[in-house]
Amino acid sequence: xxxxxxxxxxxxxxxxxxxxxxxxADNWYRPPVSVTWQWQLDGxxxxxxxxxxxDIDLFDSxxxxxxxxxxxxxxxxxxxxxxxxxxxxxxxxxxATKDLGKTLSGWDNERWLEIRSSDVRxxxxxxxDLAVSKGCDGVEPDNLDSYRTNTGFSxxxxxxxxxxxxxxxxxxxxxxxIGLKNDPDQARALSSDFDFAITEQCFEYSECRSYSSFxxxxxPVLNTEYRRIYVDDESERNSVCKQSKRLQFSTxxxxxxxxxxxxxxxxx
Length: 268
Fold this sequence. Notes:
Number of strands: 12
Order of helices and strands: HEEHEEEEHEHEHEHEHHEE
CATH architecture of the domain at 41-50 and 73-177 and 188-194: Alpha-Beta Barrel
Low-confidence stretches: 1-22
Shape: globular
Radius of gyration: 18 Å
Distance between the termini: 29 Å
Structural class: alpha/beta
Largest sheet: 9 strands, mixed
Helix content: 25-40%
CATH class of the domain at 41-50 and 73-177 and 188-194: Alpha Beta
């Protein structure tokens, strides 16, 4: 993703000035099953899609962009990584070296975080405050399944559950919706804590059934597929869309870069 050139001192002053001291309670956005959506994390956001919600980057998106989307009747979900350190973020200096683990495979400028650390959790609460100050309707914290990989730390599944529930509770206390990202083995246990799920390639990896508890609870599953065959072969795309509709998922076929170079939706 693109680096954000934004001085840390200015970022902190901005945040302290605009974050309200009292948050809304129990009235956050709750998207419905089969909600329509657009997901773009790179490039100039294409605002022209007729969908219910947009999922865009928390740091790279301006207040003006968020307000324009909302003025056109869309809800806005703001993305940030909750399980990894990204060296280009304006608050990267807030992470302690001891809390930085191994480099993520395929992402040389990201490192796994020690999710049990109180310092890491404080950074995440400030990011949630930033989401409030920018007017986001909800958040998509990424990398919520790091217990399944070699992070350089020795935390386990229960530590991940505790961290994910911490994020959900903090988001809700601020009046923000929150989505569970790519944590299929814990989806059932966490479906009561989160308002929706976001999954990548659940059809490709045969993980879609893991999220059935969300649908049963009246909460949507937002899925994205990246296989090139779904782009090039209309019959293959129609096949995966047929499966998606049967499960009541909100499936998109997108470029892995999430840069809006193409988009196919399984919903109108």
